[in-house]
Amino acid sequence: EPVEPAEPVEPAEPVEPAEPAAAEMQEGGAPVGGEGVDEEKGAGATDGEPAAPAPPAGPQLTPTTPAKFDFTADSEYIQYATNKGLVYFRSVDGTLVSEGAEQLKDTAWATWTVPMGWPVEGVYAPCTGLGDVPAVSRSADCSLVASADAFGGVKLASWPAPGRAVPSKGYQGHSAGVTNVAFTVEDQVLVSIGGVDRCSFQWLRLKDDAPDTGVPPTEPLDAADLADLGAAAPDAGATPPAGLTFVHGLSTSGIRGNLAYNADGAAIITAGSVGAIYSKRTHAQAFYTGHESAIRAFAASPSGAFVATGDQKLHIWDACSAAPVAVLPKLHYADIVAVAFSPDSKRCVTVGADALHTIALWETPRGTWADGVLVATAFSGTADVHFCAWAASGSGASYDFVTGGDGQIQFWSVEGQNVTSFRGVFGEGAEVQPLTCGVAVGGAMVTGTVSGSLLVWPGPGSETMVRAQKAHAKMVTAIAGNAAGGAVSGGNDGFIKVWDGEVELLNEFNLAVDALPTPLVPAITSLCTDVAFTKILVATRSSDVIEIVRDSRNACRLLSGHYSSSLAPAVRHPVDEDVYATGGADGVVKLWSLSGCRELASLDVSEPVKALSWSPDGSSIVAGLATTSVISIAVDIGEMSMTKAKVFVQLLDAAPSSVALSADGSALLIDGSYYSAGDGAKLEGAKGSFKDPLPLPVEVDSEFSCVFQSS
Q1: Which residues of the chain have pLDDT under 70?
Q2: Angle, vertex CA 130, rays to CA 188 and CA 144, nearest 5
């Protein structure tokens, strides 16, 4: 049967919605605490007569879905936030507290997870909005607040955090936005949840009640602590000679600027895969041996407390004790070729040798570098990069750091996790050429060039090179700032030049004249100045480390070594076992003291040395040369001198790799063949007896021309 249609219902009069008293967004996006209208009842509803709810909009959350809520410490009230960004306050019986923000402002809360309100305003960085911080969590001891951001970061700030952009420490791990964070009951661990990456991270809380001095802790953090903070535990690295006691020489190729003073005034160098700290007062060295391959980049922090060295990873170690601090996670796919600390020693930039010369920015929130984390990355481009340098502190520069290399310089600015750059312009008529080194002088950046000139790049507001200052007759190889506000430069011409803050010449030193003994090759490879700018420390191409007193011009050689691409095995004196000899492709034979860890004598034979041995009585050295000849060098141990005595054999079939003189001095054994020590004629058979060389606790590094002494 058809049904009689019902009488039509008159539509209800529309109700004017109540004026919301909800949380508003401050200018810039940060929300403030407040309370909203009771949207759960609908517009126009009263406490006694709720309005009909709106129909659901599919599976999406409605604007009133509670997202976070907290109880007061006495369990009498709750606050909760909705996904629309509104905050409500209710008593536990469900009654809405319309003036909750004001009424409960002094009430203690058992937890705080609502990402709004005055105690968490400071977790919002400038230009961020409500959706950029989806979650916060206050620690149970009410000392910290953790926040998640939409960019993959987790941050810690002190509780409460009123105002805008309060100081915080950031940690990276998630690949995309973090959706939630929470402390465990005893605040030992912070757990973060990723959205897109679907990962749960556990962060170990490290409580440090001691004042932050910027000096690493006496006992380094263990592997678990470092892993939780984003840094790897220090690797064991390549094994240097057991019981390493002294390194003669330093790396002079394949690395730039590997020389510095520490806070105690000791010299820091690198030799192959080893970092060494040399004390002139005690004539002793301490070693960092954490690298698995050769060190290709070096920097000392302005504070004198840390050293950063790089292979494919960035290693941070103590500048005074050489104790390992941290090995930061591997980012670069090729060796690190440049590294530099910021003026406050809390940030570090590295540049890789990959095709796009990846730039990485690292930071230590606590200033100890045990908590070092990656902040940002960028690509420099395909042109080779030779150096990086930070702008001077307080200079007002519009950039944070620069990178320079083959025909280019880039000025980089850091904004949070974003690193942007603009390219410097050489200017009309200026020669576009490779830049070799750079340092901040006041508000300008001064760079060295292959032509020997210094280029002065201006401060804020312009990226064009201002002027070129003729400095050296050959390539500028090193430049460093000084306490007087100027710079010191060194070049392949062997000159060291001191410049004022306007890059005008004040003084100069010629190592070929001022240094005694005179370096075999006075070309400068590295230099630095002490904190008071009373001394200049210089490394030469011939592997000398020389300290110059600026006012008196006195020059003292601290360390020496070989500088060739290969070294012959070291040989021990047959009578005086404290003495041994080395030789190399630099054409130099040197005598050393094992106990004194010093060079005793040196002789330039002007031809590459391939093999060495002593005469049985120790009065001479037999040297095999690359020119296929074997010579005798007379040695006076008393006078500690050497002179070229005679030629044993000439025109061998090949350069000798081993030589020995018979016990009676009548025959030579050269690569398994016998020769007369008198006329050099080849003998048909063995003649005389040959002693085995004495064991020697010395190893040579042919790639970096360093000599390693062991106990």
Answers
A1: 1-65, 127, 165, 207-242, 459-463
A2: 20
CB within 8 A of 547, min separation 6: which ones?
Answer: 267, 280, 535, 536, 537, 538, 555, 556, 558
φ, ψ for residue 671 (rounded to 5)? 50, 45
Q: Rounded to the nearest 10 degrees, how much is the dihedral formed by the CA atoms of 218, 225, 372, 156?
A: -110
Q: What are phi and psi of 227, to 5 degrees?
A: -65, -40
To the nearest 5 percent, what fractions of the chain are helix, strand and coil?
5, 40, 55
> Are the beta carbons of 471 and 489 closer than 8 angstroms?
yes
pLDDT for 241: 64
Q: What are phi and psi of 416, to 5 degrees?
A: 65, -120
Which of 350, 364, 361, 237 shows the shortest CA–CA distance to 296? 350
pLDDT in tens, 556-600: 999 999 987 789 999 999 999 999 999 999 999 999 999 999 999
Backbone dihedral angles phi then psi of residue 411, each to the nearest 5 degrees: -105, 120
- Alpha-carbon gap, residue 156 to 123, rounded angstroms: 8
Q: Apex CA 94: angle with CA 89 and CA 100, to 5°?
A: 20
C-alpha of 202 from chain center: 26
The answer to whether the CB of 553 falls within 8 A of the CB of 538 is: no
pLDDT at 327: 95
Cβ contact 15:80 at 8 Å:
no
Cβ-in-10-Å burial (0-12, 13-18, 19+) of 655 comes to: middle
From the list 355, 318, 314, 348, the residue with the least C-alpha distance to 334 is: 355
Residues 6 or more apart whose CB falls under 8 angstroms from that of 673 comprise 682
Give the pLDDT of residue 461.
Answer: 60
Predicted pLDDT of residue 29 = 38
Distance CA 628, CA 657 (A): 10
Cβ–Cβ < 8 Å for 593, 550? no
CA gap 36, 80 in Å, rounded: 11
